[in-house]
Amino acid sequence: MNWLWHSLYQSAAMFWETLWALVLGFSLSAFLRVFFRKEQITKQFGRSGLRPVALATFLGAVSSSCSYAAASTAKTAFKKGAALVPTLAFMFASTNLVLELGLVLWLLLGWTFVLAEVAGAFFLIVVMWLLVKLTLPEGLVETARAHIDEDENSCCSHSHGQEMESEEEPFGKKIRCRENWARAADVFFMEAGMLWKEIAAGFLIAGFLMTLVPDNWWKNLFIAHGSGPLRLVENAVVGPLIAVASFVCSIGNIPLAGLLWSGGISFGGVISFIYADLIIIPLILIYRKYYGAKAAFYITAIFFVSMVSAGIIVDLLFSALELIPVARPPSAIAQASFQWNYTAWLDFAALFFCGWLVMVRFKGKMHAGQ
């Protein structure tokens, strides 16, 4: 049973290494969602121009980091008239340009990968925009909107109405309101509740793969040597396919990305793998439910080609700038351990902050008479 204990220990140690970053990211995300006024921005998503796409990308970056929540929010905006490109840009930015993902990526892989992930995101959106402009079938948008259920349950409608009403308040008034801080605590725990399965699965899968899978197996999964065009393209294609098979999305795929990097996949392959959290099988089934089979296949194909293209472009660009790390140390999850250092103090501070949020949330519900 040593392999089981070792796998669980490495997974738990890696989670401990990143706990403070997750709490910080979720906290800032909750603050922005409650206190940031976004209703006027979402009204600008009706066209596929530069300004709507840029606004959709920015709004996505300051909102949810959960792939499933991003898909749900994008569906609502699309049903209300948002164009396809801003909708997809919002969904992508919601999972790949959020702060918590960048923090965890920095901790596990380094600043170079964070820079590549951000730069590649803009390349991906441009490629996606061009693909949609060139290939969008006539009538697909109208068919997809017709497929979306017109009725929403009263609970969601009531909650949405409350959020929009609060967002119309001035920022100075909102930040002094105790109920808004209680709402921020609610959003924090809602985001963590939606993502905890993906995060746990990501660390557990990475821990077990590190313990059970020999290093040579990774080298057989993709072309691990050379720098020719074949390896560049093949690794960028294999990266998203591994993500689809892993079923792990959002922040949960970062530990797996570190494992792939130490196993020999190319720089661009890591980036395309990270991007592919939006085309895992459960999400493809959700797209089919929301938009219909034809639109779901089209959205998945657009995402896949855009992710592969962005991985290739980033690899070429960073290679030309000589920014690709030469060393391939063992994955961060293999080096993780429980130590009494600055990380421990940051984690204890994060846990104390979570306790304060629980108290704020409880007082808010008591004040509301719930």
Description:
It is a single chain. Helix content is 78%, strand content 0%. It has 370 residues and is mainly alpha-helical. The chain has one domain (2-367). It is globular, with a radius of gyration of 21 Å. It starts with a helix and ends with a helix. The relative contact order is 0.15.
Characteristics:
19 helices; 370 residues
What does the secondary structure layout of this molecule look like, with pairings?
Elements (H helix, E strand, L loop, with lengths): L1 H34 L3 H4 L7 H12 L5 H13 L4 H13 L2 H11 L1 H25 L4 H8 L6 H14 L3 H5 L2 H35 L2 H7 L7 H18 L7 H10 L3 H9 L5 H11 L1 H28 L11 H4 L6 H26 L3
Task: Report the β-strand fraction as a percent range.
Answer: under 5%
Give the fraction of residues assigned to helices.
over 70%
- The average pLDDT value, as a whole number, equals 79
From the helix content, strand content and strand pairing, which structural class follows? mainly alpha
What would you report as the Rg, rounded to the nearest angstrom? 21 Å
User: Could you describe the largest sheet, including whether it forms a barrel?
Assistant: none
Which outline best applies?
Answer: globular
Domain module tally: 1
Low-pLDDT runs: 150-167
Report the order of strands and helices: HHHHHHHHHHHHHHHHHHH
> What is the number of strand segments?
0
Cα end-to-end separation: 48 Å
- How many distinct helices? 19
